[in-house]
């Protein structure tokens, strides 16, 4: 239980700090994302205004995913306010869909070119699949399956966070070129997160489903 509690607090800390950092840095400090665009190989057809619209929607919905995802795992909320839990889950599902759909436009200009674009494409497919399975299982009243697929979906939702953490580590600490570091991080983030999600699902000390508790 101590490991589970530590993991829960760590996820709350990581999600809240990253959400605050992302909104502050990308929407206030550098609203045109000039520092981020420096690392991209962009052609003459690149439309920065339209790109920014899609990116801002992506940022806002991605942050909503983190917040609603954490609230969805709250046993206290589930026990005391099941209606809020359901509405929160609906917001999570819609936010995942919007975040994934906006990525379709953003992927083509991903830092790192085709290699990064391929990884992002696979990530979106796997993420949407996991989220859809979470919806299907709860519709069938499969509470254990629903929680398991929500853990998988939420682990993938953290990919954007871990991408930048891995990039920062490789670029700033080990001196790897930013574009190369980002490309490696794009692949490492969702694959490692998927493994961590499976570890949580399969480890009884971290993943325990209370019987008879509806979602």
TrEMBL record:
It comes from the Bacteria. The keyword Transmembrane helix applies. The chain crosses the membrane at residues 7-29, 49-71, 91-107, 113-132, 153-174, 180-201. This is DUF2306 domain-containing protein. Pfam families: DUF2306 (PF10067). The keyword Electron transport does not apply. Keywords: Membrane, Transmembrane, Transmembrane helix.
